[in-house]
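re: that complex we talked abt at group meeting.

here r the seqs, copy pasted straight from the sheet so there may be weird spacing, ignore it
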Amino acid sequence: MSRTIRIRKGADIRLKGRPTAAVVDAPKSAVYAIQPTDFHGVTPKMEAKPGDRLQAGDVLFRDKNKPRVAYLSPVSGVLKEVVRGEKRRILAVEIEADGADGFRSFPVLDPARASREQILEALLEGGMFPFIEQRPFAVPADPSDRPRAVYISGFSSAPLAPDMSVVLAGRLGAFQAGVTALAKLAGPGGVQLGVRPGDDTYSGIEGATATAFDGPHPAGNVGVQIHWTQPINKGEVVWTVHPEDVVAMGHLLTQGEYRMDRVVAAGGSEHPAPGHYRVRLGARMDALMGGASYSDRVRVVSGDVLTGTEVHPGGYLGAQHHQMAMLPEGKEPKFLLTEGWLSPGLDKFSLSRAFPTWLLPKSKEYTLDTNNNGEHRAFVVTGQYEPVFPFEILPVHLVKSILANDIDGMERLGIYEVAPEDFALCEYACTSKMELQHIVREGLDMLQTELG
Amino acid sequence: MKALHQLLDRVRPNFQEGGKLSRFWVVFDALETFAFTPGHVTHKGTHVRDGIDLKRTMFMVIVALIPALLFGTWNQGHQYLLSIGEITTADPLTYRILEKLGIGAWKVLPLVVVSYGVGLGIEFWFAGIRKHAINEGFLVSGMLIPLVMPVDVPLWMVALATAFAVVIAKEVFGGTGMNIVNVALTARAFLFFAYPKQMSGEIWIHNVGASKVDGMLVDGYTGATALGELAGTVGKSASDPAVVATMAQFEPGGMFSWANAFFGTIPGSIGETSSLAILIGAAILIWTGIGSWRIMLSFLLGGLGMAFLFNLAAANAYMTLPPLHQVVLGGFMFGMVFMATDPVTAAQTDLGKWIYGFLGGALSILIRVVNPAYPEGVMMAILFMNVVAPLIDHYVVQGNVRRREKRWLSAQQQVAS
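got the structure back, here u go
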């Protein structure tokens, strides 16, 4: 029997347009792209040139600072363009798919019998390291580290989250192979798997310590799960991997293919056909939009609505994202009595009891737009973050130490344990409309630079 | 409402950079954002945001103040008619209610207007200089200031106190959210220290001084507050006839009986007298989650505890007042619900709030009883706790830091062994 940990703090934001359990093959994109900006702190060094013919699994670029970490092409085709932004920074590497779906073949390994070095080498060459994130700092892992443990959150608790039993259906064999491989890389903590109580999706999985997490979002955040099993101390490193990427690792090792298939949950009140869509990594976002096209009245979000990125026409699904949402844009000013700050607010989903959300039935789902619902202010209200921040960390004090560039303070207040996503609900709830995830990211960057 | 917004769109260019009225941009911006939550959308971070903003938060506090404001307005008329013998305490409270409200409003409204006028004027001016939007903080401060004033305070003094409080207590620190001490209490303290003579004696009941001169005043009516009367007993023997007479007023049926003090039909600052009205406000603040119940509860416990200790000591008549009676007198309740809970100046950690509230309540009663020169111990206590709050938080934060360090040390030892 696995241990159950009850997370009391947090909140489930109930949005309209929840994805159904149906899985649809999304239309194939003509162009796929890998966006280096999806991998925080990576400086790409191109290996392939525009015009090169590529198989799925051929190297596009490597990380300049960690040259062993390769970023591979998700599809076979021709490298179309390296899109650059300001200061020639690479924004996207676009590949025109040829439709043949050819794969470069990698050597096949038995993860149960292979050595740590063999697995490490295979995952590096097979382009898997970009999909292993490390804590502290929430950046792509460094292959030279030996992590204390590898954490896999087996479910997502975010609004409009994918259903993992749907996502992993038929892929648990590969998932098991991935877990076995990761167990070889992990230190004394082994592989830690966070599950929902009563969910038997992972019941046959061996080689991982399962812990059940009961409670509202962010119980599915891997950072929360680490904190409540064995918190990260200064000097320790743990790795985190998304279940779909564990599947990809298993497939790579046992089949010798870099097959980055994703089952992406698509939803939101503006999505015409909410559901799960099967796509390949790097697909164009419109493949997931259920036939709808871009409009300036709709916000298309890659990732979940609390942590994701805004996608503009022609944009791509983010490499680390396993869900997407379409929300109404909130560009219209709101009159104070009807929709603004003096309105009854029956249609507003508020964590504050100054709105009647808490009195309305728990089954009600809401249509939320992207309006900021107020202007940015200094910190005034207190005690607002704590109820949605399930860490034994003082969120306001940590944020203030970051704003004050107090490296020492951040360290002592526990910044090693958190990622920007852990502050997403605090940011949602904030009366003063602080950009907390941005602030936390800056703090992590500052600390990482300081430590060299 | 489209029409209104189109009108705003049409006049906006006049206020923008280069427009004729560009120096009034802050005013335009404040009014526009008051009427319409702007169409700003999220870009970084969360794509959806909670409906709550500072405007609604502050508005809820105003709503919570309405019972105290209405009761205070009525009570000023009530006290005035009592003082000149037009009514007696035997009359029902609703007797001549409109007249009482009228007299009260005649005195209270100008205070409210002056407080908001001066305070918002300064806020607009600073916002203009600093080129930032008007913050909502003064919406509440502007209502709190008149409610902690005696009814006959000269308007120029209110204006001066408001100006002092807004500039010195708030704007020099950077505006709403940056201040160290409570703005409204600073206004009250300013008057207390700058005009001690004018702020004591015959200002607690409308026109009481003039009534006395004209011979209109009911015999034996001093117009003093409960705490003023109690302060007069200090230093005298409990068996002194004057002390006995004073203390009799606090017995059931007396002017300052527990029931009268709880319902608020006694002289005092405009908003502070009725514990009942204040507790209705407290219920609204706790219900909406905007006021900290931790601070209110611990403040009350602190006050009751200190009064209980005085009961045990019982060195003079003042000390023998029962704890439940102490806390319904003076500004204790008002300070507890509306002043101590100011999130900017209170402690910010949960544990810190408990400590801050408890000490604040205890100090309020301590100052009031042992130092009769400061009958308004609550004001002093909260201002003092405002200053100490960051220190309390510091120790709470250090506790959190130490737990983390301990965890790290034990992990190190495990590795070593």
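couple things i noticed - The mean pLDDT of chain B is 90. The first strand of chain B starts at residue 36 and ends at 37.
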